[in-house]
Amino acid sequence: MAFPAVFTGASDWARVAARSAPEDTVTSSFASFIRAARPEHLSPTVRQRSKRMILDSIGVGLVGSTTRVFDIALRYCRELYSSVAVSSVYGKPGVKLSPTLAAFTNGVATHSMDFDDTWHPATHPSGAILPALLAASQMLPPNTKPNGLDFLLAFNVGLEVQGRLMHFSTEAHDIPKRFHPPSVVGTLGSAAATAKLLSLSSAQCCHALGIAASLAGAPMANAATQAKPLHVGNATRLGLEAALLAGRGMEANPLILDDIPGCSGFSAFYSVYQPKPLSAPGEHHEFLLEKQDIAFKRFPAHLGMHWVVDAALSVRNLFINYAGSFSPSLIRTILLKIPVSKYINRPFPSSEHQARHSFQFNACAALLDGEVGLGSFSESSIHRQELRELLDKVVVEHPEDNVANFDKMYGEVALLLHSGDVLTGKCDTFYGHWRKPLSKESLLKKFRSNASHVLPEEKIEAIITLVDNLENLSDSSQLACSL
Cα–Cα distance between 342 and 344 in angstroms, integer? Predict the structure, then answer.
């Protein structure tokens, strides 16, 4: 596939493509994997799971295009930049932006409600790569458009790179404390996916990863603020830019993923770092998505909230059977048993973004309303007096066996009644977790509900059909054009 002339100088392209990255290094093994991956390396399971991720990510991006933080990002891109506008924006059929800004804006939309998918080790993989691929597919000239199978392969290459990078450090297995993972591994995943879609050479793939590493990283302190969605927007945008720069001839450290004593590369993001080469794709390589499925959220909040919500709904049913109705006045104390994680332990959230990152709020909202959904995080819902009264009753405990790890944690909600009775609900695995995945029907219901906020029914069904038949598309930009 030829790289579009408008984005590259032919002499630089030839010079960089002719150079080889150092052999037998961790970084070169990743570059070789990106270059060598082929559609036949994707098993039926990987294809099916990744298409579920693509559909869900589009849906949360579409509903995310209704948020204030998305409006801020879109207005910023439209007012402050003027460039070739060829790439579509979620939920805005008449709007086009430059490829990198469309990727940024759509990435912000995807994470604006914290409604996007989550993997293990913890990151949000789809939002960091899908917007870049959608934008890039529209950027390419008509005679070089990647087909649907090329697109699906590039998406899975981006996933695989993210997953393998997360396995470089045991620190990455737990709920993060320092850097927001999609801002780190997502940026390199976006670079890898785009490099694959653009058919960069192994040397260029190597440089794309190195450039992306210099554009990566965002602090966890901005969780539960409007700045957090920028982490995903920047990851997908900057990874795309890294691949474009590598294609134009920019070079970076070809050992960026290797552990070089005294000079940190990608290891700068982790206190414990043990990189491993990535085996060549083929019969002896198993994509991580084959053995580690994804978690899809049923409501727009941090993944940890799904355990306490299901536990709260369970104990709520017990309480109604006990008392005949949900009567908060009978409750003396609400005891939450949750893992230690500072940024999602928020007793009295004052904004929608804080509420999406509050064990206490989500447990109490589920108890009060019998559900948690999009409307739960509106200003009027957050500041209800009856909800505040429940929050006043919350006490938090951190059992030693409840670790801050999405593969091991649990949520427990106990109601200590004035009568002396105690009712308890516990959730070890919520519906939507990779151990209990959403059914096809549930995933489609979520997508249709999200997309219906901005698209008519015929367009919604057309997108479902496009994703379902992605391997058969002759031009993958049809998917981006449908948004």
Answer: 6
